[in-house]
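YM 10:42: Phosphonate ABC transporter ATP-binding protein sequence, as discussed on the call
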Amino acid sequence: MTTVVVEGLSKTFRGGKRALKNVSVSVDRGEMVALIGASGSGKSTLIRHVAGLVQADRNDGCKVMVGDRFVQTGGRLTADARDIRRDIGVIFQQFNLVNRLSVLTNVLTGVLGRIPAIRGTLGLFSRDEKIVAMQALARVGIAETARQRASTLSGGQQQRAAIARAMVQGAQIVLADEPIASLDPASAKRVMEALSEINRNDGITVIVSLHQVEYARRYCPRTIALRDGEVAFDGPSEALTHDFLRELYGDASEELVLPDVPERAPRPQIALQPAVAFAGA
Ligand SMILES: Nc1ncnc2c1ncn2[C@@H]1O[C@H](COP(=O)(O)OP(=O)(O)OP(=O)(O)O)[C@@H](O)[C@H]1O
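YM 10:58: structure's back
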């Protein structure tokens, strides 16, 4: 079953920058998909459209669906968008948590969309909700930090707390926008493992934008690559080759390419072309 459908999505920012050009992709429920591309290729913009945080260019053919509901159509957010956002956990590169609150309270904010506003405002979380939040923290390996202020966590721990919050939220889909961009390799690995774990064990669909191609290959069976606002590749991550990545990243490619990426692999099954086939469309 398809979880995310994007069709004919174009985005032109004020000032005339065309960040996305007629992008169409779809992601099936339970997939873990990497979104890669050079800086400025449109990864964040695409994620923000799926999350309903940005409106596309006005165009009747444009639609963004999550589950079986429209987040936006024709460049306008739908009345459902707000409701749909409850099913989406969004994790950014940083600033995911409220620094002055405890880690546990941050994780508990995941339930805010589902409890009476007054309880949320007063921070009156039930014992069961706290247990669920503690279990989520344990699953991402940072239960011992529950009482600490969020500001005292390392970057990687903060990202894992944000993943725990998405779990408590009951998110069906997690959109992670460069969650490991500023982390050391050990922390990055733990964050990717936490995302992978909720994907495998809870069936949560994960779309994660990454600068580090090696993590896409290691954790995500499928990769979508953007180049200058267009889909340049959509296929198995193992089909990514040095040649393609060099072309995709230009001058920055040497830092990004994994040593174990084949110099010249068999041609990807779906790939390296402006018009791309979409799995599950
Ligand atoms: N609010 C905005 N106003 C104007 N231009 C924007 C805005 N947001 C993004 N852009 C431009 O749109 C293009 C795509 O940006 P986006 O952030 O989606 O790229 P990205 O692939 O996520 O890049 P990075 O990897 O550096 O985060 C860039 O040229 C960027 O400068």
